[in-house]
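## Example record

The block below lists the input lines for one assembly entry, exactly as stored, with component labels intact.
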Amino acid sequence: MINSKKGALFHWIIIAILATLGAFLLMSYNADTGVKIKGEWQADYLNNYYLVGEKELLQNDQLALLVGKETVALLTKQGGVSEGRDCPFYYLREGEQACFQDIQSTVNAAFNELMEKYGGGKYTVAFEKEELIGEAEDSTIINSNRPETKVGQYTVKKHFRVKVGYDFSKFVQLQS
Amino acid sequence: MGIGLKLITGKKGIMPDFFDLIFMVLILFFALFFIQLVLNSEVEAKTEISLENLDQFNSEQQFLYYLNYPVLIGEREIKMKDLILLAVNTNQEELFEEKTEAYFREKKAEGSVAVYNTEEFRQEKASLFSFSNVVFGSGKKSSLELPNLENKQIPSLTVVFSREK
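Predicted C-alpha cells for the full assembly:
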C-alpha cells in the first residue's frame, strides 16, 4: 500500500475527509445558526416582571390584611381615638367631655403608622363595610437592578382591598 | 465527436471519473447530513428553552392560584395563604394537609407544598409543614415569603410549591 501511488492518495483522502468532518463538528459545536428562542422576550417579561409584580402584590395584600387587623385592634382598644392627635369632635358622656376624631383620618393615620413600622409604603386608606381599601401613593419598580432589562421599567402600584372583618362606619353612627 | 462522448467511451477515463463522482456524492451526503444534524439539534435546544420558560410561568401562576384559592373554615371563607398562616400560628398541621390535599384532588393534580420558617429556610432546615402526593417530584419549584405579624416567633413564612407537569 505504501509503495502504491493510488493507495497513498486514497489514504490521504480518507484522513482529509475525517479531519474535515472533525473540524466541522468542532466549529459547529457552539456555532450560532441564527435560530432564535421562540417567545424569549415574552417569557422574560412574564417570568421576570409580571409574575414578580404579582407576587409582590400578593405579599403586600397579606401585609395590608395583617396591618389592617392590627389597626382594628388598636382603634377599638382606644375607642376610635388615635393617640397624640387633636380632637375635632367632642361630646359629653356622663358629664365628662370625651373625644371623637374623624374616623376616616384616624384609620388612615393609624394604618400608615403601623405600615411604616413594618416597612410598607404610604397609602390613602378608606373603608367600606368590613373592607379596607388602600391606594398606594408611590409606584414600585419591579426588578430594577436586572442588568439584562429589555422592557424598560415595569412598575406596579400596590393598591389593596382586604377584608378585616370590622366595619369602621360604626364609629360614624356613634358620632351622629 | 464531442469531449463528453469521448469521456464516456474512453476506457481509461471511466474509472477515475466514476470515483470522482462517488466521492463528490459521498462528501455532499455527509456535509448535508451534518448540517441537518447541527440545525436540528440547535432547533431542539431552543425549543427546549422555550418550553422551560413556559413551564416556569405555568408553575408560578399555579402557585399564585393556589395561594389565593378559597377555602372554607366552618362558615367562613378565607384564602389558602391565610389558612397556611392560621395553621402555623395555631399548630394545626392536619388542617393544612386536609385543605391542600382537597385542592390537589379537586384540580386532579400532583405536586407538593412545604411551609418553612423563613429564617430556617435560609439555613436549609426542615419544613414546619409539608404535603406531597408524589413519590419523586420533578416539577418546577416556586416560592414566596408571607409576612406573619401575628406570631413574633415566626415573623415570616416561606411557602415552596411544586406541581408536576
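The longest strand of chain B covers residues 156-163. Confidence is low (pLDDT under 50) at residues 1-5 of chain B.
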